[in-house]
Design a protein that fits this description.
With 325 residues, this protein is mainly alpha-helical. The chain is 74% helix and 2% strand. It has 14 helices and two strands, in the order αααααααββααααααα. Helix 5 packs antiparallel against helix 10, helix 8 packs across helix 10 and helix 9 runs antiparallel to helix 10.
C-alpha cells in the first residue's frame, strides 16, 4: 500500500507540472489585463510602468519560470486587481465552496442511494418509474435555469428562503461555517439543492443499475433460497457489492462539484471560489485564474488518490499492483 501511494504521488506531481504549463500558457495568451486595469486616459509611460510592475514585459518563458520558482514556496503570484497573494484570495473563498459542495454531495448520497435502491428493487412499480422519470429531469434541466426557478418559487413567490448570499456564519477552528446557524442553513439550502440535482440523478441511476445486476447474481439467489429476508439480502449482499462503484463515482463527482460550482455560485451570489473566478476573468486577473485552476487540479488529484485507496480497501480482490498499472 505504501509503494502504491508513493507511485500515485509521483504521478500526481507529473500531472501538476504538465497542467501548470498548459494552464499558464493558455491563460497568459488571452487578452491584455493592462487595458482593463489601467485608466484609459493613461499615457504610454504609465502603461509601460504598469506592465513592468506586473512582470508582463518579460517573455512568456521567463514569466513561467518565475511562476514555477514561486510555486515551490507556495507563492502563485499576486492578484493584479487586489494586489495580495492569489492563494490568499482563493483560500479565503475556499471554505464557502467546500461547504456548498459537501452539502450538495451529502444531499445526493442521502437521497440518491435509497431512491436508486427502491427503483432497482421495484422497477415496474409506479414508484420506480416515477423515480427514474425524476432522474431524467435532473439530467436534462440546465443548472442555471433550475437555480432561477428555485429563486422565483421559494424566494419571490413564497418568500420562504433568501435568494442570495451566504447568511450568518460562525467560526469553527478559525474557518467561517454557515450550516451551524439557522440563517446560514436557509441561505445554503437552495444553492446546495441546485448543485446536487445532477449528482442525485447520477447516483439514482448508478444505484438502480447496480441493484438490478446484483439481484441477478447467483449469490443473491442462494441467499434467498436459504430463507434470508429480502431486507437482509439487500443490506448484506446487494449494498456491499454496489458500494464499490458508488464510492468511486462519488469521490470523483465531489471533485467536479468543487470545480464546477461556478454557475450555482454566480446565480446565488455565493461567495466561493467559483464566484471569485468569474470576477477574475472579467478583469483578466491572470494570477488568480491560474492559481484557481491549479488548486482545482490538485484537489482532483488528491481525491483520485483517496478513491483508489478506498477502492482497494473495499474490494480485497483488487490487487494494488493491478490498480497502479
Amino acid at each position: 500500500m505504501v509503494s502504491f501511494a508513493i507511485r500515485r504521488l509521483l504521478q500526481s506531481v507529473l500531472v501538476l507540472f504538465i497542467m501548470s504549463a498548459l494552464v499558464f500558457a493558455g491563460v497568459y495568451a488571452i487578452g491584455d489585463p493592462i487595458a482593463i486595469l489601467i485608466n484609459p486616459q493613461a499615457d504610454q509611460s504609465e502603461i509601460a510602468a504598469a506592465t513592468r510592475a506586473l512582470g508582463l514585459d518579460q517573455p512568456l518563458w521567463r514569466q513561467y519560470w518565475n511562476f514555477i520558482a514561486g510555486a515551490f514556496t507556495g507563492d502563485l503570484g499576486k492578484s493584479f486587481s487586489a494586489n495580495i497573494p492569489a492563494v490568499q484570495l482563493i483560500f479565503e473563498r475556499m471554505p464557502a465552496t467546500l461547504e456548498l459542495a459537501l452539502t450538495a454531495m451529502v444531499m445526493a448520497v442521502v437521497f440518491g442511494i435509497p431512491l436508486g435502491l427502491v427503483a432497482g428493487l421495484k422497477p415496474e412499480s409506479w414508484v420506480g418509474k416515477t423515480i427514474m422519470a425524476g432522474s431524467i429531469l435532473g439530467f436534462s434541466l440546465p443548472t442555471f435555469w433550475v437555480g432561477l426557478m428555485l429563486i422565483m418559487v421559494f424566494s419571490v413567490w413564497l418568500g420562504w428562503l433568501p435568494p442570495t448570499g451566504r447568511g450568518e456564519t460562525v467560526m469553527v477552528l478559525g474557518i467561517p461555517v454557515s450550516f451551524f446557524t439557522a440563517d446560514g442553513l436557509l441561505h445554503l439550502f437552495m444553492p446546495a439543492l441546485n448543485l446536487a440535482l445532477f449528482k442525485l440523478s447520477l447516483l439514482i441511476r448508478l444505484t438502480r443499475a447496480g441493484t438490478r445486476e446484483a439481484l441477478a447474481q447467483d449469490y443473491v439467489r442462494f441467499a434467498r433460497a436459504k430463507g434470508l429476508s429480502m431486507e437482509r439480502v439487500v443490506r448484506v449482499h446487494v449494498l456491499k457489492n454496489i458500494m464499490i462503484p458508488i464510492v468511486t463515482v462519488t469521490g470523483l463527482e465531489f471533485g467536479s462539484l468543487i470545480a464546477f460550482a461556478i454557475v450555482t455560485e454566480t446565480i446565488f451570489a455565493w461567495p466561493g471560489m467559483g464566484k471569485l473566478l468569474i470576477d477574475s476573468i472579467n478583469v483578466l486577473d491572470r494570477p488568480v485564474i491560474v492559481a484557481y485552476l491549479l488548486i482545482i487540479v490538485l484537489i482532483f488529484v488528491l481525491i483520485n488518490l483517496v478513491v483508489d485507496v478506498l477502492y482497494t480497501a473495499l474490494d480485497p480482490r483488487v490487487r494494488v499492483t493491478g490498480r497502479s498499472a
